[in-house]
Specification:
Helix content: 25-40%
Number of helices: 11
Distance between the termini: 83 Å
Number of strands: 9
Radius of gyration: 42 Å
Mean pLDDT: 87
Strand content: 15-25%
CATH topology of the largest domain: BirA Bifunctional Protein, domain 2
Largest sheet: 7 strands, mixed
Oligomer: single chain
CATH superfamily of the largest domain: Bira Bifunctional Protein, Domain 2
Structural class: alpha+beta
């Protein structure tokens, strides 16, 4: 009996001193488990006289119940304290501003393509696309570029398969092959704008990239003139660079247009007076253009005696760099968010 009372007296203080549910679980095992003093006393009942067993057994059960009550009471207190701590840790000050997330945006190249496309779609043009791996016929022959032209060498053009011209598969060097595909697929009139990725064996530097984007435009119908080409490009320049912009067309040569020209736009930064953006000339070279060569019409099955047309094409990176004052084309490919976030 004295041992039972001693166990109960010590247990009361020990239970009250526990500070966590883990400590309480450990103490409960020590007090009432198979190796506890209480279990040893219970196993010793058989050694007592029969007259003593009922009283000792009853007291054993009573002490076990009291220990269970002490542990249960302490467990409820500890659980409540743990819940209070959890609520305190998870408390939110609803007067604080919420956590915001930065809204994503399109890359500047995509933004430029979309804006340029919208200008021409508003004029009635349709958007056309084509494969990035082309045949040499679509990329060169159909566009009046003969087999001996230096641009067809693998030093200038990237090839998936290079060798016999009939079987060659270049990565397209411009989006112009799509104009051939469109004309072969439909009768005139044709008004299409063709954005897309293109490839050339250029060294990656501030002004060049082996992978870049182009925007091709094509208009074919009865009676289209060089004046229509100039008016269309002047409208584009005003819409994209500002209503005060003017253009000039400088004679040039391209295999697939005749006559051909380079389009220059008056500098939006200095209004034509000369500045670092335009190289002090007052004009910015932007794209190439011209009237579709009759040989191109014959290659795609059009009669050059019945239709005329114009085509133009320029680099999207070039257009974006001019407008936004970007001096290094590599910024478009560096994945530097500091660059992209300027144009959100």
């Amino acid at each position: 009996m004295d041992e039972l009372e001693a166990v109960l007296a010590v247990a009361s203080d020990e239970v009250a001193a526990t500070q966590s549910l883990a400590e309480l679980e450990e103490l409960e095992t020590r007090l009432t488990g198979r190796k506890s003093a209480l279990a040893e006393l219970r196993r010793g009942l058989s050694k007592l006289d029969e007259s003593e067993r009922p009283a000792v057994g009853a007291r054993l059960n009573a002490v076990a119940e009291e220990l269970a009550a002490l542990v249960g009471s302490r467990r409820r207190i500890l659980e409540r304290e743990a819940e209070d701590r959890l609520l305190a840790d998870d408390a939110v000050d609803i007067t604080l501003p919420g956590v915001g997330y930065r809204t994503g945006t399109h890359h500047l190249i995509t933004q430029t393509i979309d804006e340029v496309v919208d200008i021409f779609v508003a004029l009635g043009y349709q958007v056309a696309t084509g494969p990035e791996i082309e045949t040499s016929w679509h990329n060169f022959d159909a566009l009046n570029t003969p087999w001996w032209h230096p641009s067809r060498l693998d030093s200038d053009t990237m090839y998936v398969d290079y060798g016999e011209s009939d079987d060659e598969l270049p990565l397209r060097t411009h989006t112009s092959p799509v104009q051939a595909r469109v004309m072969m697929a439909q009768d005139p009139p044709v008004y299409v704008v063709v954005p897309g990725r293109t490839y050339r064996t250029d060294t990656f530097d501030a002004a060049h990239s082996p992978v870049f984007h182009q925007m091709e435009g094509l208009a074919v119908a009865d009676g289209i003139t060089f004046g229509d080409l100039k008016g269309t490009l002047a409208h584009f320049a005003r819409e994209y660079f500002g209503k005060e912009r003017t253009i000039e067309l400088i004679p040039h040569f391209f295999p697939f247009t005749e006559p051909s020209a380079e389009m220059h736009v008056s500098c939006f930064n200095c209004d034509g007076s000369g500045c670092p953006v335009c190289g002090r000339s007052g004009w910015i070279e932007l794209l190439g253009c011209g009237m579709v060569d009759p040989n191109v019409f014959e290659a795609v099955g059009y009669d050059p005696a019945e239709v005329t047309g114009f085509a133009f094409g320029g680099g999207i990176e070039r257009i974006a760099m001019v407008r936004h004052g970007i001096t290094d084309i590599r910024h478009f490919f560096d994945n530097d968010l500091r660059v992209n976030r300027q144009y959100i």
